[in-house]
Design a protein that fits this description.
Blueprint lengths: L5 H12 L25 E2 L5 E4 L5 H13 L5 E4 L1
Parallel strand pairs: 2-3
Antiparallel strand pairs: 1-2
Amino acid sequence: MRFRSGLEKRIFTHAEEQGMELAYEPPDVRIRYSLPRKYIPDFVLPNGVIIEAKGYFTSADRTKMRKIQEQNPELDIRFVF
């Protein structure tokens, strides 16, 4: 079994050693959540187009921007790298 971190592996191994049954990231358990956040665009053109300037587009940035676009499909957000 492959774990995302050493800590997860240690917890799973310890639980097994104690005789506990543990399911690691069970595929049938998915919990949705939403955090209230505010997005402040870098630039807004007079026509309403939003410009987001990115020097480095991290995984967290991609997730955030995907959520913003999913929840606000009327926005025209364009990226400059």
